[in-house]
Amino acid sequence: MSRRLLGVAIMASLAVGMAGCGSGGSSTDNALEIWIRQLPDSDSAKTAKKLADAFTKASGIQTKVVAVFDDFEIKLNQQAAQKKLPDIVINDTAQLGTMQSQGWLKPVDKAALSGSDKLSELSWKAATGSDGKYYAAPFSSQAFALIVRKDWREKVGMEAPQTWEDLAKLAKAFTDKDPDGNGQADTAGFVIPGGTKRGYASWYASSLIYANGGDFIKANGGGKFAATANDPKTVEAVQYLQDQFCKAKTVNPGAVSNDTTITHEVFEKGQGGIYLVGPYVLARFVKNVGTDKIEVIPVPKGPSGGPGTLGEGENVYMMAGSENEAAQKKFTEFAISPEGQKIGMNKDANGAIVRLPVNTGVDMSAERQDPRWKVFQDSFANAVYAPPVPNWTPIRQVSADAINTVWADCTADVKTAMDGLNTKLTQELQTQKAS
């Protein structure tokens, strides 16, 4: 085990012993403390504050919203070690296994949660632990699609891509045919967050893997799983992307080191024209790039499978050890209600913390006028969530390391790398007693 992973393991084991022994600010000021993984003072953090304020107005229960983005999970570990976990955490669906395995979450009685029957069944999958119990309430969902520079596509005289071959040709045209008309070879086809931080390379690649019928892990029933990273359909998708990096050279420079924060800016600066991403940046790009310059296109079905993209979102987690259990439940019920969902959606403005509503009683078209949101909503019908293994985080990280390597090293053989990844994922599942 590397020193980094050993340190994480030690911190996690400390958190397990201490997690359920108290709550955050609620014990001192009696306010319901709500953490959300957003940049402080961002539009999204302001939307979270609007949601909390509306809850306070409706219930009389005071709240304290804490927005944290950098090292969110590390800071939660620190709070656990200090016996000061917040009352509520709004966090990624993929973090459920990690948080539950550390003893931070208590099971959710779905039947006792008012409004739970109005939430989509697919969204409830992301609130389910490896033991089949619910450990959160769905709050926001999303699928992925291609945000494309429409003006560039029209400039190079091409139609919207319908196949992976079409997509590769469009990326090549964006790279070679000066779509911005400045006379310089300074544009790329794909913009990709291909770094390993928080597993971004795996996160990005997963939508194309799912669109080709591949996967990293498959459920075998009974809470057991098997690694499938060297399945031919998975290998084909990773090979397709390596070809874009290494043969066609259609990916923005520096992509193998970039996270999403940098990649958003690369797209906005006109350094690339095809971004496979979730709907949370749509309003931002409409504002910063121009509404007439961008379009949203479904991810094309891969040559061996599909359709499908990564499905993810955020859950409302009621943290163990809280002294405000009744308030936790009331806030969760408000957040999943039509009123709470609409506040979180924030209409067409930037700062949505509900990307696609999980409450089936909310008409998204009545809340948002931009028809491009519908592409993401339609894609969600075939979205693939991370499987409910005890801890998805190391699986995504190990996958990202392997995929990043074949993108950064053009001499690397993809099949060999994915065979190696499959072995590591099998070992990880054995470690988690999920094999």
**The top level CATH class name of the largest domain:** Alpha Beta
Number of domains: 2
CATH architecture of the largest domain: 3-Layer(aba) Sandwich
Largest sheet, strands/sense/barrel: 6 strands, mixed
Going by helix content, strand content and strand pairing, the class is alpha/beta
Poorly predicted runs of 5 or more residues: 1-28
Rg, Cα atoms, Å: 21 Å
CATH homology-level superfamily of the largest domain: Periplasmic binding protein-like II
Mass-distribution shape: globular
Strand content: 5-15%
Organism: Nonomuraea zeae
GO biological process, one term: maltose transport
Family: Belongs to the bacterial solute-binding protein 1 family.
Pfam family, one: SBP_bac_1
What attributes characterize this protein structure?
435 residues; alpha/beta; D-Maltodextrin-Binding Protein, domain 2; 6-stranded mixed β-sheet; globular
Descriptive report:
- This protein is of the alpha/beta class.
- The protein folds into 2 domains: 3-141 and 312-376, D-Maltodextrin-Binding Protein, domain 2 (3-Layer(aba) Sandwich); 145-310 and 391-431, D-Maltodextrin-Binding Protein, domain 2 (3-Layer(aba) Sandwich), CATH 3.40.190.10.
- The protein contains 18 helices and 14 strands.
- A hairpin with a 2-residue loop joins β7 (217-221) and β8 (224-227).
- It is globular.
